[in-house]
Amino acid sequence: MRCIFLLISLSISLVSAKAQEVLSFNSVTKINSPISSFAVDNIGGLYIITPDNQLKKYNEKGDSVGVFNQVTQYGKLTYVDVQNPWKALLYYQNFSTIVLLDKYLNVLTSINLRKQNIFRVKAVTASYDNNIWLFDEQDNKLKKIDDNGKVLSETVDFRLLFDSVPDPEKIIDRDGLVYLYDKEMGIYLFDYYGSFKTKLSFLHWDNIEVIDKTIYGFDKENLYKYVPPIPDPIMIPLPPELQNNSLIKLNNHKLYGLKNNELSIYSLQ
User: Distance (Å, rounded) from C-alpha 165 to C-alpha 68?
Assistant: First the structure.
């Protein structure tokens, strides 16, 4: 199988009014295929979720390298995490189940969190050491588990740390830090030992990503870029072609935007 790629030559230059930073988005590829969601790993692999809940993986050349057809066995797929290209993480929130796949989308193992007395989880991700981070909403703790579901470490109860407990929708493990993002409260940073480091009050961003300690996020019309230790993020307006996507992501110096079942890929310079 091959995914259909349409090559386009289009270059758009953007200037941030605040920082006068010039970015060039070069449209190189469009994928016309039924797509409900997607994920991108750090070596260019593209993971497409179809409307019927099938997961397909393509390499950086657009060749199909794997299909996972057992999706409905665990109910509706909630989230795909591919921070580790050799071990994709699938999360099924309604069944409290994590499924781990190899690079060809073969099942490595599945974890029923309820058997570990973990009943309310929305945010999960792979950890730097080949384990799994999750936020246990019942215990109000960030926890690390292994492939068998055993809890390896956990923070103190967040109710002892914060006056208002965050409800993170995304966890990112990067460069010695763990980032928890709550759209209504901001980004909470922890070290690998579970100690709270700081909070960044960036609200209402979508699809945040951390690349080389730089934090990126989106709303419907703008790209945001935060480079510590500057006090404020840079806001870069997106052109009409890149606005109002149903899903937009940044990785591998590329921007991926999904709109009307069409996935557009731009190189970012």
Answer: 36
Q: Cα–Cα distance between 251 and 207 in angstroms, integer?
A: 11
**Residues 6 or more apart from 230 whose CB is under 8 A from it?**
none
- Token duo for residue 193: 């030992």
Cα-based distances in Å from 243 to 32, 141, 219, 266: 18, 36, 9, 13
Q: What's the residue count for the chain?
A: 269
Residue with tokens 């709109």: 259
For the question of whether the overall pTM of this predicted structure is more than 0.85, the answer is yes
Number of neighbours of residue 54 by Cβ within 10 angstroms: 17
Burial of 61 per CB tally in 10 Å (0-12, 13-18, 19+): exposed
- 69-90: per-residue pLDDT in tens? 876 688 888 999 998 989 999 9
Name residue, tokens 């009409």.
240
